[in-house]
Write a structure and sequence with these properties.
Largest sheet: 5 strands, mixed
Helix content: 40-55%
Structural class: alpha+beta
Number of helices: 7
CATH architecture: Alpha-Beta Complex
Order of helices and strands: HEHHHHHHEEEE
Shape: globular
Number of domains: 1
CATH class: Alpha Beta
Length: 209
Amino acid sequence: MDSSLQLSTSERRIIESDSITAQVAAEEIEAIFMNLLNAYLETHYENPKLIGFSVPGDGSCLYHAILVSYQSKFEGYQLEVSHNEMRKRVSTYLLQHIDDDNHLERFQNFFPLLGSLESPPELRKRYINYFKQHKENTTHWPIELCIETITKIYGFEVIVLGERYYNGIKGNQIEVVFESKTINNDYTTIIIGNRWNFHYYGVGLLLIT
């Protein structure tokens, strides 16, 4: 290997130092969010008491959060075999029902700048490509339409708690940022957290020992 392409000892130390600093900063950001989330849960959900917890940040955090939150609420009942199966089921549903329930319009609204420039055939093609990719690629992030589809498939409401914004600036309070409901009023509610549209968190029963 060309020695000019190799990092010097000082360069390696700088990179390692930057990595450590970034990791510490990420942990601090997560700790702050978890404190805010748990303070909200303590105030608004007293019976039963709830607590937030982290899930893997692998691109499937939404599905992890839904599965573990449901499992915590219903005494260990496993809703799906894995997050992969839930992802596939959601994607398959959206591909099969592309013309139902204004799915194309909802998809377009999630990408307003891009969608406004597309013809209907182009939008349809992008929708199909998006959910084909989402079905097979476990690191492909979901959109809100996926949460609505989870509600349709499994029959429970999903409430997402996240940071409140003031004029586009993140605040230091938690609020309901998204909510999907079933048509049937006899629904079950699953609560999850979302930090800055970046990572989802599970919410489950606080076990008191």
